[in-house]
Amino acid sequence: MPRQQVEEPFKINQKITAREVRLVGDNVEQGIYPTDQARKMAQDQNLDLVEISPTAVPPVCRVIDYSKFKYEQKKKTRELKAKQTKVVLKEIRFGPNTDDHDFDFKLKHAQEFLKEGAKIKAYVHFVGRSIVFKERGEILLLKFAQALEELAKVEQLPKLEGKRMFLYLAPKAAVVAKAAPKPAAPEKDKAPKAPKEAAKPAPEPAATPE
Fold first, then answer.
1. Residue 25's closest CA among 59, 51, 61?
2. How far is C-alpha 110 from the geometric centre of its chain's CA atoms?
3. Does 179 have pLDDT greater than 70?
4. Is pTM beyond 0.85 here?
5. Half-sphere exposure of 18 (CA within 13 A, CB side)
């Protein structure tokens, strides 16, 4: 069976049909050029002319190594997917009659989860006839969201699904960045400090009168 050709995500070289293009990048003089001239500029550098913004007028192109460009694009896509899959969702359960002590206890846990970069799924579980207190559950969840407003943003307001009312919170980017551990200073940076401390007692004999 003949192998199916994979359609390239970008037009390159001879496949660029526009009469003129806008060149951008570090290895060319930026500006608008006839497409044939832009292709020749790429060929002279043993590189490719790649159309990166086809909807612009004129289309925007770069003179780059297309194979390397595709590799970098795939790498960025993989990294983005990896970050998305690492999102942790923590559940916090309340009852419609949760007291202040239990509320504060769960609030403290939620603060820790958010600082670690986790999302929060908080919900009130209604057992039996307690569903008649759904307004109380909504007030409880809104109070919970308000108490965490410095750390989290609301992704979904309280919503009743069956016998549970859900609230979804996500950590604010600034909170996660602030909580991230700072890299330790290299040992070589710390080494010069030791001789200075050892040299402090040296001036004392010179201060003694003869």
1. 61
2. 20
3. no
4. no
5. 25
Nearest alpha carbon to residue 135 among 170, 96, 99, 105: 96
In this structure, what token pair is assigned to residue 106? 């769960």
CA separation for the pair 158, 78 (Å, rounded):
34
Q: Are 32 and 20 in contact (CB under 8 A)?
A: yes
C-alpha 49/C-alpha 15 separation (Å) is 10
Q: What is the rounded CA–CA span in Å between residue 186 and residue 50? A: 42
The continuous run of DSSP H or E covering 143 comes out as: helix 134-147
Give tens-digit pLDDT for 121-147.
999 999 887 777 788 899 999 999 999
pLDDT at 199 over 70: no
User: Could you tell me the domains of the chain?
Assistant: 11-66 (3.10.20.80), 89-179 (3.30.110.10)
Cβ contacts of residue 144 below 8 Å, gap of 6+?
94, 103, 106, 107, 110, 122, 167
d(CA 13, CA 42): 9
DSSP string, 10-69: SEEGGG---SEEEEESSSS--EEEEHHHHHHHHHHTT-EEEEEETTSSSPEEEEE-HHHH
**Tokens coding 63:** 């003179």
* Strand stretches in the chain, DSSP E: 11-12, 20-24, 31-34, 48-53, 60-64, 89-94, 119-125, 152-161, 164-171
Three-class SS state of 136: helix
